[in-house]
Queue: 2 jobs
Job 1
Amino acid sequence: MNNIPFISILIASYNYAEHLKKAIAMIRKSDFKDFEIVYCDDCSSDNSVEIIREIINENKDLQIRLIQNKSNMGILKTKTKLINECSGKYFMICDADDYIAEHCLDKLAAVAKKTDADRIVSEVYDIDENGRIVQKQDIPRITSKWLWNLNHGCLYKRSVFVDNEIILDFIPDDVCLTTYFSQYSKSVAWLRKPLYYWCIHNDSAGRNIAKTQHKDKVIEDFRETLEKIDSVSQKLNSSDIQQVQLLEIKLYYLQIFHALKDYSFSEKKLMYRKLKNIMKSHNGEYLNNYYIKNPGKMPLRKYAKYIILFSAFLEKFHLMEIGLFGYHMVSKVIRFDQ
């Protein structure tokens, strides 16, 4: 094995001790062995560090490195730190409560070696706490590096991140990474196979941000996200700008229909009005986006595409609050996801 591994698998964790053994066990099953695991514990209050040290002792043949933050840094700073401190040609982010498919590394590495692409993307299974598949996040027919915003099941060329001194500084962290990375990325390879299992559970941080935050913080975070993404789009050509604006529209509608899903209807309505004001102030012409007018060319999965088109239709005819009430009632009995 080379001193510099081909892949660095990065695990940022806070209080996920119960999931670590399975995550590492699935990585160990891989036939591809040219990798390191870099685990960063963000001052967990459970026994995560004890568990990872036990795993290291039991797997002497694996390159596993433990990093402990001296204070709780949060997911953005912790992932930035991991990327800068790993040593692989490519890095892969694996959340502590998720796991990879048995041949994930083999298949991703094969594509990386064949194409030398800056980013290699695979499909993802969403699973529940019992391991049952909830949905497959399939790669759409028309692809866009700007609009596949999952960290999961991807390889990123580390030099693109480090050489351009990227710092993750807004949430959602996966949108932050993919947006900043894409402005420097020259090539993406797409692998239409599900190679990653994303566990969706009650305390899944990425899907419950709004539930655990003060409402004002949700609003300000959304405003900051748009501003950060806009700072990237100002450097792009017109085609890329339309796609980045579509990303902002996607985040806007998914914020309404997913981040606010546990709110009361009156709270949903109030938050929608605030989010709409931010969106209109940011881009008053968002309903005239090229892809909303040309949905057949929209480089998104069907679900996100339909959410955007239906929501845009409701907004154009000032029916969004009625639609929001219908969603509020139906979501009590039917599970909606991204």
Note: Residues 205-210 have pLDDT under 50 and may be disordered.
Job 2
Amino acid sequence: MKTKKKKLKIALGLTIGLFAIGGGALYAYYLDLIAYPVGIHKPLGHQIDFVNQNFDSESEFIFRQPTGTEIIIPANALEYEEGSTVKGNATLKFREYHTAHDIFLSGIPMQFGENREKMFSSGGMFELRAEKDGKKLKLKKGERIGVKLANYTTSGKEDFEIFELENDKTWGKGSDFELIENEQRKITLEKAKNSPPPPSNPNGDSTDFIFSFTADKLFKHLQAWKKTEWKLIDYKGEIPVDQALRIDWDDLKIKQLSEKKFELNLTVKKYKRNGEEITYKSKIIAEPLLSGKKLELALKDYEKGLKKYSETIAKINQEAERAAKQAALLSSFDIMQFGIYNCDKLINSDQILATVQMEFDFEKELNPLINRVNAYLILEEDNGVITYNSSDWDKLPILKSTCSMAFVLPDGNVAFVESTTYKTFQNSYSKRYFKVKTKRMKYNDFLDFIKPKQKRLELETRQA
């Protein structure tokens, strides 16, 4: 009943306001108001900026992003619109979208089909263009650009396909792709795990196991080591190391392994009451600690080595942090022209709990149909945006996943419904009718508000 009253109210308002125009013109105007425009329509007139990178068009160009995305453009593959080959430097323009809020700002449509009944869930989307001296460039016939697109989805390849937004208006037919591991990320993280050990402190520290031994007359060959302290590096023996270094050994042999490392082989014989002999052997890998002038020189070398080590570890950790932000998986495929491409799957109908009618508080202040106010359902988990004009607010879907809503008002404000409020709709969708109170922000404030949710990385490039 409420739906009929709402639509009647809109129709009456249009009839009274435009009666003089005539029935045919009025109906045409009404059809225009309820129609969904084709193509890209940025709701706030703002979106992610392009990353612009100059490159030599006559050489193969490998373009990489901190997300893990990689674009490979073959040498001599570009031409002008009229067909002549591009020479010298050109500019690549690139941006990618990995969150629902990125997609919302882009205005790129995420619905298709005759009645817009098919809805996309994105596993990564990007826009790629090229130009030279302000002129648009295209890819030569027969050439292909290699793409490895960051894929942050947790569901793997599943039902995803690659779609092209043909002529920047409608989505074409889906095509297959290969889901591969991000090898560069894997190598970098493994390198961080197996980072080199720090230089050895010749003076030892509180965490080191320091020991010495006393050589009696039977071990004259050990007199040279009489006042030497040793730092334990490794131990293998039949008894614990702390016990092993407290007993009197029957034999001790020292073997130099490297400039600083020595192997100490110790043997002791014990006898049981019945006279049975038991032999215990232990092997200690140790480093002699220095003193005097040798220690002073060694400490200087140690300080230099420690500084270099700290710099190396900082670089390794920086690379590891950067690699950790990359997608572990990449969607690999080729494209034959510049444009907008999306790795998508369809949202199944079983993800819709119900369709309901909603009435929003700002409708008391303005007519949303005449002011062309759309409802943007932002699918935060499924990476999608579904758009509805006010003539369809009596059949808004309640989805199972986390969602929020936004409305761009003509007074410079954005009315929005947070995901916590949307969850109350999910918990009581059987009501089928909701009066909704929204929050409001100025356009720029709303852009700042959703930035944390975008979780975008600062983009950087490098040419291989």
Note: The CA atoms of residues 215 and 222 lie 6 Å apart.
